[in-house]
Amino acid sequence: MTAFFALTTSLLWGLADFGGGLLTRRAPALTVVVVSQGLAAAVLGVIVVATGGWGEAGPRLWFAVAAGLVGPVALFSFYEALALGPMGVVSPLATLSVAVPVGVGLVLGERPGLLQVAGIAVAVTGVVLAGGPQLRGAPVQRRTILLTLVSAAGFGTVFALITEASTTVTGLFLALFVQRLTSVVTGGAALWLSARRGTPALPEGGFAWSTLPALGAVGLADVAANGTYSVAAQHGPVTVAAVLASLYPVVTALAARGFLSERLRAVQAAGAGLALVGTLLLATG
Question: I need a surface site. Which of 120, 154, 261, 277 has the fewest CB within 10 A?
Fold first, then answer.
């Protein structure tokens, strides 16, 4: 069950990143984040009311609030790093986010077997290579590296926090709603401040209302990924769930290959293969 839900997380996050990347070609990244998360929060609000999730309110929701505060910071740092530096450096380096939940699992006493340790090493190597690491070229700015590390730490922290935010299905819906609501408020404030400083919040031609369904799909895929990861981490070793959930760059690369006809570099194809091998080792270990 852990492997299934963790791999589902990778699929959902990979598709969300792919869709979000396409949408940011038509609108500012911050606007895409706020609108997509706002639509997801609205849907989650309806689900919470329908399932009676308010009855699950308790101290654990503070973990969801914390995740909602950290998430936008991580996402904005990631987009800024992508704007400043080559994706071939930023994307693989951002996968270091897996170190946070894996570290938490080890501190809590999890001890993966030898086969699983091998699977973790192979899978993480595969994910880094699937991002197409740039090994040559001009030096990367220190600010780009710093922003990427901040985003990695932030994404990993969200991994760890959302796992602690609930213990039941209805409680998970409430936790995800609170997380997204916090993210929208935080992101909305950042968008307002950005607009006050003169940064356009909308594209030159105005907001494209035809993109609302796609924005909603991206936001819901991201929310669903958080939910499936929480389930995966609660039903098995966090060390395994976190590594399998971090395979989303492979999904994004394959989606670009399938929908945009982007050719995979040899290093990316090798990385995807190693990620698959690591996944099999983890699932069978």
Answer: 261
Whole-angstrom Cα distance, residue 183 to residue 181? 5
Rounded Cα distance between 285 and 217, Å, is 34
**What would the two tokens of residue 81 be?**
């790093």
Say if CB 57 and CB 65 are below 8 A apart: no
pLDDT digits (tens, 9 = 90+) for 20-32: 877 877 888 788 8
The model's pLDDT over 268-278, given as tens digits with 9 standing for 90+, comes to: 677 767 776 77
Give this prediction's pTM. 0.78
CB contact at 8 A, 140 and 85 = yes
Closest by CA to 6, choosing from 225, 238, 241, 167, is: 241
Residue found by looking up tokens 């309806």 in the block: 46
